# Entry
Amino acid sequence: MRRVRLDEVDAHDVGVEGRCSGRRLSDPLRTEGLAINHYRMAPGERLWGLHAHVDQEEVYLVTEGAVTVETEAGTTTVRANEAIRFAPGEFHCVRTDGSSAALYAFGAPRQSDELRVPNPCRECGCNATEPVVGDGGEGVLRCPDCGATSAVACPDCGSEEMRATLAADGETVLDSCVDCGYESPVSRF
# Structure
């Protein structure tokens, strides 16, 4: 048996704006097949852009406040004492709107090595690409089918802090720059 207190686990900054506090509980609890993280999110924060783990299912359990969950099918609100599950390969993003929130994220299996974003490959049309580090240390998107790579830099400011998000209509997937606010619909081939 292993037991930990949240306040005894080191917190780290996470989220698109860096205003979320995350605590990784898997190591202190010595879990083998389950990733466990606790997040405290500031108002108006987004944990990550739209993404999917090909090899991991995820469950978010909201303990305080409410979060808006984005998927390719639209958005939904998950409130305190509610949970939501994502199957492997299902695109999702968690954000807060007007208030803060606290939640747990559970992932199984613990290690997830296959992350995808809903940016299609420009070479073969595969519907999702994998964010990886290129040969020069830059962030690129690699197609899991044909291996083609493309840059993720913002066309306006050159920043590599790009995220896939949903537009206000709740359906259109956008490439969004964290630094300058640039947004453009993701091309679907």
